[in-house]
Design brief:
- With about 350 residues, the chain is α/β, with parallel strands linked by helices.
- It has 2 domains: about 20-255, Aspartate Aminotransferase, domain 2, CATH 3.40.640.10; about 260-360, Aspartate Aminotransferase, domain 1 (Alpha-Beta Complex).
- The chain has helices at about 15-25, 45-60, 75-90, 100-110, 225-230, 240-255, 260-280, 305-320, 345-360, and strands spanning about 5, 70-75, 95-100, 115-120, 145-150, 150, 155-160, 170-175, 190-195, 205-210, 285-290, 300-305, 320-325, 335.
- The two termini are about 35 Å apart.
- Bound molecules: pyridoxal-5'-phosphate (PLP).
- Pyridoxal-5'-phosphate (PLP) binds next to α3.
- Pyridoxal-5'-phosphate (PLP) binds near residues 11, 76, 149, 153 and 197.
Length: about 350
């Protein structure tokens, strides 16, 4: 049996062992072609099948309506921060953003380079420890869209429901929780996500968009940054990240094998409950950062009362085979990322380690 770490990395993150093993089996000779998937033309029938299958699995698992396009792009979610306003924020209109934390801030900052923006709601005064009450969201009359970050990876908060925006386009950065729970795609005009947290390795970025939004981009937008370029060419305008698309496809099949996203959601909840219960039952030794109403099922953020103990926690956890438990440098503390591929055994081991560490240091 291969030795595997208890991997709680925030991204790139754990992949299922079965997926890695299948990738290994097919690595040198894919589909009897005498070469790896990385060595063949992206115009070949074999690659095209891999490409189309990844798209159709996304459609099937997320229940994406036929009136939506599924794009496989590059540049990460960070490139989407710019592509969204370049393509969808015309002069005279306002890009409205809900400020929930570090990633929402990056998204609005990028939009400010291209047009007028507005903060529709913010939890900054609470240090971004929660998702703002949806009833406080104020959308300017001339808004082009409302942008939300479904899961704040660094602060460890997550929307439990999304704002109802009627005819106004709702755009969601779902980089750190896509495919972790069912989502009503038709509530959104666009959803985007880098793959490396919940969908596969880094290198491919998923965009799910209502057809009419991506049919025609403004003339001045460069070819590679236009949604319509990728729509017209089935995301094969230029060389795609073929190996990443292939591995994401394997991961999607793995999700399907687990029973789909509803089943995965239950598994994820059971996993995070093990760790949140440890925090809540520690008598204050561990303190959750996120307000319980906004707790993420993907990134569990918590603190111990001294930085010294936090440091010791990380050091000792590493000796016990845990990886990635240090909080993001911008907020400090501790963080366990429990994406789809993190097995329940890792979470159980972490809960036990937390109890043990408290006994020794409480
Ligand atoms: C990681 C992350 C990003 C950035 O993704 P890249 O693919 O590295 O550009 C953006 N938004 C959220 C919510 C993230 O978790």
């Amino acid at each position: 049996m291969t030795k595997r770490a208890y991997n709680f990395n925030a991204g790139p993150a754990a992949l299922p062992l079965e997926v890695l093993q299948q990738g290994q089996e097919e690595f040198i000779n894919f589909a009897d072609s005498g070469m790896s998937i990385m060595e063949m033309s992206h115009r070949s029938a074999i690659y095209e099948e891999v490409h189309n299958e990844a798209q159709s699995l996304l459609r099937e698992l997320l229940g994406i309506p036929d009136s939506y396009k599924v794009l496989l792009l590059q540049g990460g979610a960070s490139t989407q921060f710019a592509m969204v306003p370049m393509n969808l924020l015309p002069a005279g209109k306002v890009g409205a953003y809900v400020m929930t934390g570090s990633w929402a801030e990056k998204a609005i900052k990028e939009a400010q380079l291209f047009g007028e923006t507005a903060v529709a709601a913010s939890s900054e005064t609470d240090k971004f420890n929660r998702i703002p009450d949806l009833s406080t969201i104020q959308i300017p009359a001339n808004a082009a869209y409302l942008h939300v970050t479904s899961n704040e990876t660094i602060e460890g908060t997550q929307y439990k429901a999304f704002p109802e925006t009627g005819d106004l386009t709702l755009i969601g950065d779902m980089s750190s929780d896509i495919m972790s729970r069912p989502v009503n795609v038709s509530q959104f005009g666009m959803i985007y996500a880098g793959a490396q947290k919940n969908l596969g390795p880094s290198g491919v970025t998923i965009v799910i968009a209502r057809e009419d939004l991506v049919a025609a981009s403004p003339k001045s937008v460069p070819t590679m940054l236009r949604y319509d370029t990728h729509v017209k060419n089935n995301s094969l305008y230029n060389t795609p990240p073929s190996f990443s698309v292939y591995l994401a496809g394997l991961m999607l099949k793995w999700v399907k094998g687990k029973g789909g996203v509803a089943a995965i959601e239950q598994i994820n909840r059971d996993k995070t409950k093990l760790i949140y219960d440890r925090i809540d039952q520690s008598g204050g030794f561990y303190r959750g950062f996120a307000d319980p109403s906004s707790r993420s099922d993907m990134n569990i953020t918590f603190r111990i009362h001294t930085e010294e103990l936090e440091k010791r926690f990380v050091q000792e956890s590493e000796h016990h085979g845990f990886v990635g438990l240090k909080g993001h440098r911008s907020v400090g503390g501790l963080r366990a990322s429990t994406y789809n591929a993190v097995p329940v055994e890792s979470c159980r081991a972490l809960a036990e380690f937390m109890s043990d560490f408290q006994k020794r240091n409480g």
